[in-house]
From TrEMBL:
InterPro entries tied to this protein: Pvc16_N
Name of protein: Pvc16 N-terminal domain-containing protein
Domain Pvc16 N-terminal: 4-169
Compositionally skewed regions (Low complexity) per UniProt: 213-239
Biological source species: Kitasatospora indigofera
Stretch list, region Disordered: 192-239
Length: 239
């Protein structure tokens, strides 16, 4: 999910907002060593914080049904949303040029409030949800730009705080498998006696044709049991 947000931001910042300026968009940690290697105008979006947004946590499951019979194929847990915080900075040889780049970025970012689904790829595109973002908003808590620069060992520099809220798809749960094996019942002579034996009978399902009916026994006739009963059946052999 994170790399897909990076790709969407790279296209938005580089191809759309900066256009043909030739400014490179990177996602590196702006350490002192990294800054010393910069020899061309660069915009850097450093991901410095990831936090779940509990206010967007949904409840219940979404049912995935078959296209023909409407049978249940799976159930989906609601997506979990995470706030990705980027420290956006401009790097040139002159501070005035950096301020100009930051101004262009700010004007382009406040013109919209979300990364629309058509900008996304991979799993984020499949979800089809817009990714809301804020830019240069007052920090709601956690690490601020000064803390980030201190941790990186660099000097404080003008920056834009860009926070993109993106989902991770919930777990897809498959329904329990249907029972396809036949149920066999063993029937035995409750009276016992010599030659008593059991037989296997299989229940008939709704879509199964009925078995041929047995001939009715005459009134008062004594029912054969054991070996005699088996011998009286078609193809039966007494043992």
């Amino acid at each position: 999910m994170i790399h897909e947000v990076d790709e969407a931001l790279s296209a938005l910042l580089g191809a759309e907002i900066l256009g043909t300026t030739g400014v490179e968009v990177l996602f590196d940690a702006p350490t002192r060593e990294w800054a010393a290697r910069r020899n061309a105008p660069t915009v850097n979006a450093f991901l410095y914080d990831i936090k779940e947004d509990p206010s967007r946590r949904g409840h219940g499951r979404r049912r995935e049904l078959g296209p023909v019979r409407g049978e249940l194929l799976a159930e989906h847990e609601p997506p979990r949303w995470f706030a990705l915080s980027y420290l956006v900075t401009a790097w040139t040889k002159r501070p005035q040029d950096e301020h100009r780049l930051l101004s262009v970025l700010l004007a382009g970012l406040i013109g919209q409030s979300a990364l629309e689904p058509e900008r996304l790829s991979g799993a984020l595109a499949q979800l089809g949800l817009p990714l809301p973002y804020t830019v240069a908003a007052a920090p709601a808590g956690g690490r601020g730009p000064a803390d980030v620069w201190s941790a990186l060992g660099g000097e404080l520099k003008p920056s834009l705080d860009l926070v993109v809220t993106a989902p991770i798809a919930g777990v897809r749960r498959l329904p329990a498998a249907l029972v396809t094996d036949a149920l066999l019942l063993r029937v035995s002579d409750a009276g016992g006696g010599e030659g008593a034996a059991g037989e296997l009978r299989r229940p008939r399902f709704e879509d199964e044709p009925p078995a041929p009916a047995r001939a009715a026994e005459p009134m008062g006739a004594r029912r054969a049991r054991g070996a005699a009963a088996r011998a009286s059946r078609p193809g039966g052999i007494a043992r």
